[in-house]
Amino acid sequence: MSVSATYDVVVIGGGHNGLTAAATLAKKGKSVCVIEKAEAFGGMAREVAHLLYNLHPKVARELGLGALNEGKPLSTISLAEDGNHVEISGDTVRFADGAAHPDAAAYAEMIRRLKKFAGVLGQLSTKTPPKLDGGLTSLATLGELAGLAKMGLDLKRLGKKDMNEFLRVILTNAYDLVLDEMPDGPLAGALCADAVRGNFVGPRSPGTVFNLMYRLGQGGDVRLPKGGMIAVARAFEDAARKAGVDLRAGQGVTRVLIENDTVNGVELEDGTVINTRAVLSSAAPKATMEMAGIEHFDVEAARRMRHMRCKGSVAKLTLTLKDAPSIKGLSWDQMKSRFLIAPSAAAVERSFNPVKYNELPTAPVIEAVIPTLSDVEVASDGRHILSANIQHVPHTPEGGWDDAKRRHVINTVVAQLETHMPGLAALVESPDLLTPADIEARTGAPGGHWHHAEMGVDQILTVRPVNGMAHYRFAIGGLYLCGAAAHPGGDVTGLPGRNSALQLLKDGVLS
Prior knowledge:
Elements: E1 3-12, H1 16-26, E2 32-36, H2 43-47, E3 52-53, H3 57-63, E4 76-78, E5 86-89, E6 92-95, H4 104-122, H5 139-157, H6 160-169, H7 174-181, H8 186-196, H9 208-215, E7 222-223, H10 228-242, E8 246-249, E9 253-259, E10 262-268, E11 273-281, H11 285-292, H12 299-306, E12 314-321, E13 338-341, H13 345-356, E14 366-369, E15 384-391, H14 403-420, H15 424-427, E16 428-434, H16 436-443, E17 479-481, H17 495-507
Parallel strand pairs: 1-2, 1-11, 2-8, 4-13, 11-17
Antiparallel strand pairs: 3-7, 4-5, 5-6, 9-10, 10-11, 12-15, 12-16, 13-14, 14-15
């Protein structure tokens, strides 16, 4: 066993949150090393995501990533079986042929209201969630109370009508909320699809209105940066490198070394030891606990971590095509949009039914994009790429995954897409399917879950990832969580990494 170096902080995992945490600390003058098991940095943002959701402006500004939020956001087109596709741009809705949509006003009012509510909740996203166990003599507790007090005042400033509506809908389901405002159809289906995206829920599940607000927290814009999500991952990597972070890929951490209930180093797969005063882990909470040693945690903490809900239900299908497909009624520019196959709120709920019983999907919700229409450098030789995220695919179907089950999913999705893109099947050169189990194996995300833990009302804010371990500090002195399982959760926001790094500094561990 050899000691290779000493750092103020070692970050486990080089996903976008780990890189954000590292860059944040390095910019504060700390020596930081990031250890990434894979050969490339970027984590799930690189491997699974195909669109950039919700990069937080503070993270973009502090890390010099503003270019990622530049340019016009993608429009969303909710594909309709009768050809009357619905085009959504911000809070504006119309039919894809330019005709007025009868529910445009209702949609705009709903989005205005939800964004207003999301703004009230959003102020907590850049702060450590309140713990409130330090007593009123604690400055930290008083600071947490001040943040809650401000949120309470902002809630009151909404006015009585909006405040009552906020309290009414915050824990309810998206299905009822949406269908109270408009008839069922592709527009309602698009809203419900975004309310369940990445989670093991259907639109009738409690708390899906919160999920929809979370999506709208930074305006709800969807972007496809030049170079795709690989370019996004590289931008985070470059930001960390420019800040002076030592980046090491291709070797994982096997143990977090503990002495007197305090972190003092990590051991790598080859036996190398790196000394450090703090470890920030963007790995899953349970995996972090195991690296540190279960014996350092009390029984209740271990029990809660074992029962954390993190059942992934999104698969990614990448199709290499001989040529670009077309959709009747859409212009060339509209083909550069984000497509949703979610024909109704009821269809989104039906999509959820098979996965409850570990069955293969029959008509899943699909989000698709053809990045090569916007960026020719993504593919070569005239080929095109169609990337689809498939909602409600089981992590492990009955009997496990085999070639036949994989082919079933691929054929099901291609058939759904071909309904709107005639001749698509004949254009497919090679399909590449990543199931939730594949995603877990490739990235370490528990259950292959997009957010490392379900974004339910029982696993957010002061109970994320679980009750009693929601303050980034992870029971052992100098050990912190900085990944998507920490507050405020998933998407490519960078906030869990940023918040965790700032909490470490606030706690004085490195003083």
